[in-house]
Amino acid sequence: MSKRPVVIDCDPGVDDTLAIFLAASHPELEIRAINPVAGNVGYESTSQNALRLADLIGIDCRVGRGAEEPLIAPCRTAGAIHGKGGLGGYELPEAKRDFDPDYAWDVLWQEARRAEGELEVVTLGPMTNLAIALTRYPELKKLIKKITSMVGTAGQGNTNVYAEFNAWVDPHACEIVFQSGIPIAMCGLDGNDTCTLSGEELYAIMERPSRITPVTRHVAHFIHERNTLQWHLPSSTIHDLVTMACFIDPSIATYEPCYTTCETRSSISAGQTVVDLYHVSGKAPNVDVLRCADKERFKAMLSEMMDWYTAH
Ligand code: RIB
Ligand code: CA
Asked: Which atom of ligand 1 is nearest the CA belonging to 125?
């Protein structure tokens, strides 16, 4: 079976963590690199979490040196939402490995050339690393087969009424990626919400005995208790996890090709992903926008993930 080479760009981050667990439980994926970026918490924490997760899981991959702040926008993080250290207070064991000597954007360029046009990229945080790579290496856009991103929304934002967090942190990077011409699947807040989970559904999966359960149990409770007790939400959408599932098995997802841009200039709505859902702009679609994903198949993938870590 030929492997699918992939680079995961992320800001772990409680939901990034679960998404990385899911990816690593799929041996058909060849995770070439996990590239951290500042986002949910500061770069010092996101990078250490990425390094430690790769070690904990045993992923044979590079961990590049990512961007410590956005391209232009000020550096803004969401520590209150992801807890101390970015993992809800969970402390992963110290990493034995070190970061790759190269920057994340150079790692991406190198791996794209090595994959000879077959490389896919999953972004789970602000898209700064990818935007830098596309800017430094104009030929890169011909070498990336597809991008699957947790970014944006065709509906209400979560950072303000307009903007989803990853787009809000670095709207300029998001727009560079949207306009790159590379096939991109945007798994936004609204599309991901079709796979929202109740506490009962979430804990039934994440508490299943396995070698990763100490982490998945802690993170699942942190997410759901924050959502229900602090935000009074009835259920939890684990955005990076839904996005990773849609990347792994695109057949669970329903996309609408739309002309989509990211607002970069407005002092009010910067970071808004402006999705031409009804095709009124007359402009050709550049982004496949997630409209829904099959929740039962999503849940089955999560159960299979826990089974995998029980057996491996
Ligand atoms: O808006 C949700 C996204 O922002 C997720 O990727 C979460 O990890 C944060 O990065
Ligand atoms: Ca993230």
From this structure: 10
Whether ligand 1 lies within 6 angstroms of the CB of 167 is answered as no
Cα 209 to chain centroid, rounded: 25
Entry pTM: 0.98
Atom of ligand 1 nearest to the CA of 166: 4
Distance separating alpha carbons of residues 242 and 244, to the nearest angstrom: 6
Whose C-alpha lies nearest to ligand 1, atom 1? 165
Alpha-carbon distance 151 to 135, whole Å?
20
Greater confidence, 81 or 13? 13
Q: What is the pLDDT of residue 2?
A: 86
CATH number of 4-311: 3.90.245.10
- Dig out the tokens for 206 from the structure: 């994440």
Q: What is the dihedral of CA 9, 179, 39, 221, to 10 degrees?
A: -70
User: Which of 240, 242, 273 for mutating ligand 1's site (highest number of atoms within 8 Å of CB)?
Assistant: 240
Task: Give the C-alpha separation, 128 to 174, whole Å.
Answer: 8
Q: Which ligand lies nearest to the CA atom of residue 166 in the structure?
A: 1
Q: Is 26 a catalytic residue?
A: no
Residue-wise pLDDT for 29-41, tens only, equals 999 999 999 999 9
- Compute the average pLDDT of residues 161-181: 98
Domain segments of the chain: what residues? 4-311
Q: In the structure encoding, which two tokens stand for residue 18, read together? A: 């679960």
Structural tokens at position 307? 């089974």
The tens digit of pLDDT for each residue in 199-223 reads 999 999 999 999 999 999 999 999 9
Integer Cα distance of 168 and 267 in angstroms: 11
Task: Using the predicted structure, report yes or no on whether residue 294 has a pLDDT greater than 90.
Answer: yes
Given the residues 26, 82, 224, 239, select the one marked as catalytic.
239
* Ligand 1 nearest-atom number relative to CA 13: 8
2 CA to middle of ligand 1, Å?
A: 31
